[in-house]
């Protein structure tokens, strides 16, 4: 049985995603041992509804809590993409550094490379991305 908070999160997250979300194409990539790599045939390409936000700010590596004086600031990525964790039921299918995301509803449908994927400890996974040219 889900908690009242989980029920509220499920309803509000679906509403926000339907209103503010946009279509993205998730393109898994594999690293090449001696080359640039290419498509990853072991993980499926997926068109997903995602929350996409521009992030022009730096972030602290130790969070924003009081007494957090030992981190440093870094640019985590130009764009943040947040999708439901349920799209990636197996850990092996989850986004990895080097995967691509194409923003299908933006002018010229730009491609971004996942720089840092992070599960958000709720029901979503967030990945920071940097812009790349088409694969």
How would you characterize the overall build of this protein?
This protein is mainly beta. It contains one helix and ten strands, in the order αββββββββββ. The strands form three sheets. Strands 1-4-7-10-9-8 form a six-stranded antiparallel beta barrel. A hairpin with a 7-residue loop joins β8 and β9. The radius of gyration is 16 Å and the shape is globular. It starts with a helix and ends with a strand. The model has no long low-confidence stretch (mean pLDDT 80).
Rounded to an integer in angstroms, the radius of gyration calculated over CA atoms is 16 Å
Uncertain segments are none
Anisotropy-based shape: globular
Run of helices and strands: HEEEEEEEEEE
Summary, kept brief:
This protein is mainly beta. It has one helix at 4-20; strands spanning 22-27, 29-30, 38-39, 46-54, 59-60, 73-74, 79-84, 100-103, 111-119, 124-132.
How is the topology of this model organized?
Layout: H1 4-20, E1 22-27, E2 29-30, E3 38-39, E4 46-54, E5 59-60, E6 73-74, E7 79-84, E8 100-103, E9 111-119, E10 124-132
Question: Which key terms come to mind for this protein?
Answer:
two-stranded antiparallel ribbon, 135 residues, 13% helix, 1 helix, mainly beta, 38% strand, six-stranded antiparallel barrel
């Amino acid at each position: 049985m889900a908690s009242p908070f989980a029920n509220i999160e499920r309803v509000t997250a679906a509403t926000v995603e339907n209103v503010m979300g946009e279509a993205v194409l998730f393109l898994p990539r594999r690293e090449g041992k001696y080359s640039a790599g290419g498509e990853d045939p072991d993980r499926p390409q997926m068109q997903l509804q995602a929350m996409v936000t521009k992030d022009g700010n730096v972030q602290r590596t130790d969070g924003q809590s009081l007494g957090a004086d030992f981190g440093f600031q870094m640019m985590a990525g130009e764009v943040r993409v947040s999708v439901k964790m349920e799209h990636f039921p197996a850990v092996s299918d989850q986004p990895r550094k080097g995967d691509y995301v194409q923003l299908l509803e933006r002018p010229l449908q730009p491609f971004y490379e996942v720089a840092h994927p992070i599960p958000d400890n709720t029901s979503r996974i967030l990945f920071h991305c940097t812009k790349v040219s088409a694969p």
